[in-house]
Structures are given as C-alpha cells and as structure tokens.
Automatic annotation (TrEMBL):
Transmembrane segments: none annotated. InterPro entries: LysR_HTH_N, LysR_subst-bd, MetR_PBP2, WH-like_DNA-bd_sf, WH_DNA-bd_sf. Pfam families: HTH_1, LysR_substrate. This is HTH-type transcriptional regulator MetR. Residues 6-63 form the HTH lysR-type domain.
Amino acid sequence: MERIPIDVRHLQTLIALRDSGSVSKAASWLRLTQGALSHHIKALEDFYGLPLFVRKSTPVVFTPAGRRLLETADAVVPLLHQTTRDLTRLAKGAKGTLRIALECHTCFDWLMPAVDAFRARWPEVEVDLVSGYQADPVALLHKERADVALVSCQEPENGVDFHHLFKYRLMAVVANDHPLAQKKILQAEDFAGETLITYPVPDESLDIIRQLLAPAGINPKRRTTELTVAILMLVATSRGIAVLPRWAIQSYLQRQYVSARPITDAGLTAEVWAAMRASESTKPYLVEFVSLIRDTSAATLTDVVLS
C-alpha cells in the first residue's frame, strides 16, 4: 500500500495558514510555536519535493501544489469534525444546555457568529442567554443557572475552570473636534477633568479604571448608558469621552463619526475568559464552543490576539 504522509494536522495547518494570512497568526490559532507549524509544512514539502506557499508573502500566497492540498483540506477536515461529533453523540449523547452569562456589554459583536456556528454543529443542544448584565456571572455557575460565563478576568475559584479566549486592544474615543483628538496617544493624565462615558458597571469591571486611572489616582466624572450607540452619540456631541474595543466602533470610525486614539505607549489591552464548572469543562460541546469563539473572533474582529 502506498504511504500517504498527510495527516489531519497538516491539513489544519494549511487551512489556518490561508485563513489567518500569516505563519505567526496560524501558529497562534493552532496553539503551536512557529517552529512546529513550519515543521509540518516542511515535512510535506520535503516528501513531495514541491513548495506549498511563497515565503514572506503577505497575505500568504499558495503555489499550485499548496492550492491542491487546500482543496483536499477543505473537503476532509469538515468531514472529520462532523464524524467526531457524530461518534460523540453515539457514545455519550449530545443533548444538553448551553446557558451563557455575560459580564461585558460588547460581547454580542463577537458572540453571535460563534453561537450561529455552534447551533449548526450541535443542533440538539439548547442555547440560551441569561438575560441582563451580570455583575458576578461566575456565581451563576455555582447556582447552576448558567453553563458558561464570559468574563474579563480570571479569579481562581474552587470548582471552576477558566479558558482564555483572546486579548484585545482598547481605544479612547473622542469627538472629532475634541482637543484630545490632536494627540497621537492618550495617557492617564489626559482623562483628568473629562467625563468618562461607560456602561453602567462597577469601577472594578472597567479596565480603563482598574488598570490605568485608579493606579494613577485619577477619578473622572462618570456618565453611563447601556447602549454602545448611545455612548458614541454622547461622545460625538462632546458630552464626554469613552474607552471601547476597536471592533465596537469600527463602522463609526469609517464614517468619521468619532475619532479613536491608543491609550499609553504600550497600549491598553483587555481579555476575555470563558468560565465553566470544572465537573463539566470536558463536555465535548462545551469544549467546541470555546474553540468556536476563539476561531470566529480571530477571523472577524480587529485587534484580537489569541494566546
């Protein structure tokens, strides 16, 4: 029998390389080092004696050999995933619930694509959203009122497993004619004397306050509203300034409705974690939900970094 050197890892590597556009991003998606990813590619190239993509091309440009293997990957990898899910259903059953509790107001921008993909793959699992903003969504896990809590920080608790989803950059949002719009980068002192427009959440839940302003002893006035569009309207009409992820404001920046500036020279970043009961964290559909969030967010959001 003829030896076939291709395994599913090679095919997943090629798909990640195409969809991410670079070796570094593909390695991050697959949770590999760049060296390990390059080894997978080189093993195939050495066996066939053909290059699979053009080195140093951005985004990645595949050779005819690489494109042919991608055709196989696109046909085989989804089929293998579906087979795994079918076998899991036969072995353990797939009925269950996925009740999601949210700590962040901007989750909907990246959560819905993941939920849509999940529902297509696990139609037997009932998906629901715990209504309203949750100040302590992890507590709902202990009360068995939620199955997954999406939170901004990891605070170890007995009986709870945390899974890192992604890191993202926060931007200061100001009116186009605001004096701060003339600065390239905002520092902590620039927020002094300003009105900070936020969602109605406690100070400790706001990265801008917890990470930057509170340590600097700066306590700006606060104005709150529940809707992102309302925050941007208030900013645009010079009622204050805000701090939001770039993905939440991208369309408004494109229309030049407001202006955005980085915060600190190093950049102010925030994180998103998925928490679930330790006793259930290995359930196949919960594991795949976490994976889908990472994959869809990396593919669709701006300024997102996986780790």
